[in-house]
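FAQ
Q: What does a multi-component entry look like?
A: The components come first, one per line:
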Amino acid sequence: MRSRISALIVALAIPCSLGAQNIALVAEHLYTMDAGPQGGPGVVLIRDGKIEDVRQGANVQPPKGFEVIRGAYVTPGLIDTNTTTGISGAYNIPADQDQDEATDPNTADVNVRDSLNPEDLLYQFVNTYGVTTLQVAPGPRNPIAGLAGIFKTAGPQSPFRTVDQLIVRINSGMVFNMGEGPKETYGATRKAPVTRMKTAEIIRGALLQAQQYQDKWDKWKREGSDPAKEPALEPKVAALADVVTGKTPAIFNAYRADDIDTAIRIGTEFHLKYMLASVTEGYLIRERIKQAGVPCLVGAIMQPLESLETANATYENAALLAQAGIPVSIMTGYVAYVPKSRILLFEAAVAAANGLGMEPALRAITISAAKMLGIDDRAGSLSKGKDADAVVFDGDPFEYTSHVQQVLVQGAVTYRRP
Amino acid sequence: MQRRKCAAVTMSLLGGLLASFISLAPAQSAQDQSVLVVRGARILPITSPPIAQGVLVIQGGKIVAVGEAGKVSIPAGARIQDAGGKVIMPGIVDSHSHIGIMGNPTVADSQDGNEGSGPVQPGLRALDAINPADPNIRIATSGGITTANIMPGSGNVMGGQTAYVKLRGATMEQMLIPGTIGGMKMANGTNPKGYGSRGQAPMTRMEEAALARGIYQKAQQYKAKWDAYAKAVAAKDKTAKEPDHDLGLDAVVQVLDGKRIVHNHTHRADDVMTVLRLADEFHYRVVVHHGTESCEVADELAKRHIGVSYTMIDSPGGKPETINVSLSCPARLEKAGVKVAFNTDDPITNSRMLLRSAALAVRGGMSEDAALKGLTIYPAEMLDLEHRVGSLEMGKDADFLVLSGAPLSVYTHVQETWIEGEKVFDRGNPVDLRYATGGFQVIGRYPAGAAQ
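Then the predicted structure of the entire assembly, as tokens:
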């Protein structure tokens, strides 16, 4: 039993020990996901962990000095825009669950960086399905849940990794949860919030306080930063001050249409830079979302829908939102039971087959995701100068019967199909 | 424009309702006596080679002929349905489901799978808790499931009697497959140990096994009493006294008599071996369900001719005993000569996604032939229903699917689902479509122009 886990880890580790080399990815169907045409033959040249050049065409020969990896389909590394993988461990026992600090409805000062375990089985597992970058976010139970971060799933430094080696960006978002999660967490013992109105009040109250706090500090700085008059530091409020100033984007996790609407109401009221996560009933109010100009991190659709607020989930959600002109990415989110993680590739496949189409679905988990997270300078497409994060498939990436052949993170092969 | 759109939706809604009433009509309707011919499709009969240009002839809810175009005679006056470019396969048999008993939406009121008042419940019948109006049943037909083994949950060592049903009808009587009594649900490993957290038995795997052994020993004694009574009656012994009936033990005796197959939830390899140990000891018929680590003891299963009803899940974990789940387990079982069926364990995997489970097994190395059998004839065998369902053969129930393409492709959709010659799902119907994709409760507000 343990042997198979060890085997997986060894499989991940051995190729990594080769370190970053000069690699030429030779594809029959190259999906760079940049602005140009997609799916033709081409070669991606990788040097020192970065993409040195991309050459399209059938007769391009890889230059000398590059290790050649051939594949039927080559895509950028996949990007999961909202997940608890890494902080919600595979065993699903109290010992490995660190995603919900459900002791206070406002835990704005907690940071996923301090819960993340890169050695967790699932954290390594998702890399074998092509995920090279993910935004790890606190779970769905607190109205104000804490700070998300963006991390690589592996890298040249494997197998001995620390969180800090994997960071793409910390404090990438502040998570606010709407709907059933908060009220069921606290309502059962008659603590606030018991209702959706209280959840909204808690969030609005905290944001108002953060505005006042920011004003106080701004005033103090304006008036000469006199150490004797320095305002008291309040970590939770300070974390939210970065949200009201737009430094930290807000991520509103909401399922029911009216909860999505409440999130938009709050986002508008406080002029937040924000996005919507899960958005199960987003398709029902897509005009409102479009009007608000908010990007959507569309929730995984294949997990058991164990709540009222997800009862109207549809496989067509991503397609309907995209057709309305709303930027969409796909997130695997939260899973409470078996299986403990959704697979981004498979969730995108369902969207692809239900109206979104192959190329837009691939876009949702690569370049669109990177743009939403503000990391498109490094990731999301196979473009000159970006991180050499790529996936090699033996067939259409979304076909159930295709295989991930190789995964590269920053030029290092982090997974090779046994 | 907006209003006209609304009217169209209302019309289609009515159409859908009408269609569902038709599908609820008793099997002996006059229409059933007419002949339906579906032709032009690639037909996968499963127990015989694929037919490139096939013809399927149906009458009275049964298949009367299946074969190559030109070689099957088409009766005069038959209704003809053209299925050119499509693929036809048998209706899917889900050997492990909780639709109707763990209902939709998931609120406490609709959850009747686990009688958590005691770990040994042989007297319970799933059929007394299944809600035929549960939307999950209609959702399942949109995924191509036509026959299901609906079971109590895995919270108990012996969870109760399962029900073998067709996914049609407004009452359990219409759903139940005539002549069947269902199986017996058992479970070991993590889930029944839930009692332990309340300080009740079982708290350990050994107690789970002891409880199972205890009920079978009791049933053996009970059976001996009845056997003795029957013998005395046969010998015209006037002093013979009829033993008292026991609802639970009656059902366990059916297990001992081989009339009721045990469907045993189990994950870890050592738990699978406990299942086999008990079955060896009491000589009952068993199917290993989930079988997450069953491939580790594949030879033990193969030599006993015990099959596995596998739940294909996407990633490891959720609980420690499923940490070693792997897409390659079904392939390893196949290689060892173990028959593998795929189940939904709905709600663990969605009933719309059972074709996908077989596809993932192929990704893991299984042959496409075994994967398709794992959706059809193998689960039928695990329910003693192979004489009726699981393949397209003359004389079997006319349960079949019309698919838009290859069965294991992500881009393929179930177009139509037929049970005993009646269409129960049609993707062309806007209401049915919302069961296939989602949003059936908000159909009037569902935006048009999505995915078609």
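Q: Is there any commentary attached?
A: Sometimes. For this entry: Residues 78-379 of chain A form a domain with the TIM Barrel fold (CATH 3.20.20.140).
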